[in-house]
Amino acid sequence: MENQTNKNTVKKILIVEDDSALRDILADNLATEGYTVLKAKSGAEGLELALSEHPDLILLDIILPDEDGIGLLKKIRVDETWGKHAKVVMLSNLSDNQSVAASLELGARSFLVKSDWKIQDVLGVIHDELKDWPTTN
Amino acid sequence: MVGSILKTLKRQTLQNRLYIIIGLVILILVFGLVNFWFGMRVMSGIRAYVGGEGLWSKAQKEAVSHLVRYSESRDESDYQKFVEFTEVQLGDKQARLEMDKPEPNDAVIREGFIKGGNHPDDVDDLIFLYRRFKNVSYMTSAIQTWTEGDQEIENLLRVGEHIHNLITNPIGATDPGVRAARTAELSLQAEEVYKTDTKLTVLENRFSATLNEGARGITSTLVRMTIIITCLLGLLSLTVAIMIARAILRLDRLKTEFVSLASHQLRTPLTAMNWSSETLLSPKTSGNLSPTQKKYVETLHTGGQRMADMIGDLLSVSSLDLGTYKPEETDVDIGEILATVLKDEQTTIQQKDITLTTNIDQNVPILWLDKQLVTVVLQNLVSNSVKYTPAGGQVTIGISLKKGHALVSVTDTGIGIPADEQPQVFTKIFRAKNAKKFSFDEGTGLGLYIAKAMVHRLGGSIWFDSVENKGSSFFVKLPVNKGHYGKSDEQKHG
What's the total number of domains in chain A? Predict the structure, then answer.
């Protein structure tokens, strides 16, 4: 678990992604944009960080070493106080209809196929998601 | 036994298993052919013996008739006829005796059978059956009958000779007493001939009956063998078919798994590379790069982007070819999809100063189709027209309602498709010569193949008109089934 903090911002984003290069480039860009970034490389780490840190947004990969992102999302939703309404954007390289439908049914805000998206557009989606959203502490 | 064979077979590779089974099929086929050949020869042998017996019996009856007539007519020519007809039996006997020898002479056998009136072509079958089956019950019994018949023929010949002697003996021929005694003796001998003939008739009937019984037995065995062989061959063919079907299914699954692996394994590092080069080129960081560094990073970025497009296209093709893509119908606002697609092309359109015109007929309803497929089709057609239209050209996109279908047309003033290459436009990995020249490092040659496959999946059709150096028009017809004029689901909920 790593923490990358920018003192000027309060909005917290958790990246759950097993590929370190992708995780880092995303984290660097988000940090440059002024977000506090939390990074997890597995489902278990992601769940622990999510439940302890209550991030404003979770970027969740579908394929993870220990369990798939949809399973993790289900576990987050079990948490009645925070997890039930936590904002989640799915990141994947698999755009099969079943995964998209399952994610959206579980209340994911968007489903982004990483290779189809430029990082600037991903940042745009994140900005839009966090706009006018009360910050959790 | 069968269990251990199956276990051994299961341990083999698929290829070895196929070889083993094909080997078995060949073995059974060879066995079947040998069985057929053997059966045919046996049947042919039996037919020849039954035929030979007919000739034998006929000649025997003729011999008897001539001998009896001779005893009455005392005409030497009748006796000669008798001798002549008995040659048939003697010939067959010669063959039989020779075949019984430890080292028989085939020429002597052949000569004997031909003397017996048998057709030369049947001789080999006669010899074959005798040698192979002389110890088989029905054949042993038939040979026994034949031997008894030959003994009766010997008896007949002795009687014939006696009659001949009585008639031709010159001593006392003029003595009335002697003549009367001889006449009485001739009557007695004629009686003897009749008795022998009766015995021979019984033997002849027995011989035919025995052989016929054997023929019935062999026919039934042959039928059983044929059924067993056919069943075995059928079973093995079915096994091979099942194995091949399983192998094909397994291969399909492996392909799908490979596609999925490629999608994750190739796309993930590529995305990291593309996002990294994009970050380096972003206004916030590109200031730190020298012009040369920036140029190289741009090359990396363009290459990476192209590779991502190619992987995307290859994955679409695999998924379409394998039939693994499962379309899911939702409300599709085709105008809305076009707007998203055009947004992606906006930068290029502006850079190339292309005049874009869109004509959207408001009568086109919300369609009930797979949104992803419709999006990819439009993306491919629009990006092609923008890519292959020179700077300052025009792209016109129309969406209208024609005969109960939604018609999308994408027309450009681009380079067009050479007439001789037009038939290949929708084939895999095809790029027209002028397209390669115009934009060498863009395009995988898969876009229109994918578009056509997807349009078919959507239940629509795609076609085009094109003139080289003038431009192209691509048309897509999509079904309106279940379409409606209400707001789309997303609009309702969004």
Answer: 1
Cβ distance A119 to B372 less than 8 Å, yes or no, reads no
Query: Does residue B298 lie in a domain region?
Result: no
Determine the straight-line distance between the first and last CA of chain A, rounded to whole angstroms.
19
Least reliable range by pLDDT among A54-58, B290-294, B351-355, B485-489: B485-489
What is the complex's ipTM, to 2 decimals? 0.84
B33 assigned to some structural domain? yes
Closest among A83, A104, A84, A82 to A92, alpha carbons compared: A104
Q: How far apart are CA B186 and CA B162, in angstroms?
A: 9
Contact B153/B132 with Cβ under 8 angstroms? no
Backbone phi, psi, residue A61, to 5°: -80, 150
Domain closes at, from B184, B213, B245: B245
Q: Has residue A135 been placed in a domain?
A: no
Q: Say whether pLDDT at A6 is over 60.
A: no
- The CATH number of whichever domain residue A88 belongs to comes to 3.40.50.2300
pLDDT digits (tens, 9 = 90+) for A80-130: 888 888 999 998 876 666 777 788 888 888 888 887 788 888 999 999 888
Partners of A114 on chain B (C-beta within 8 Å) are 267-268, 271
CB-based contact B279 A29, cutoff 8 Å: yes
Contacts of B270 (CB under 8 A, 6+ apart): A115, B304, B307, B308, B311
Across the interface, whether the CB atoms of A114 and B276 are under 8 A apart is answered: no
Give the per-residue pLDDT at A136. 46
Mean pLDDT of the region B144-171:
91
Domain that holds residue B480: 330-493
What is the token pair recorded at B274? 């593309």
Chain B residues with beta carbon closer than 8 angstroms to that of A98: 326
Task: Give contacts of A25 with chain B, Cβ < 8 Å.
Answer: 272, 275-276, 279
Summarize pLDDT for B103-144 with one digit per residue, the tens. Answer: 999 999 999 999 999 999 999 999 998 988 888 888 899 999
Opening angle at CA B376, ends B372 and B380, nearest 5: 175
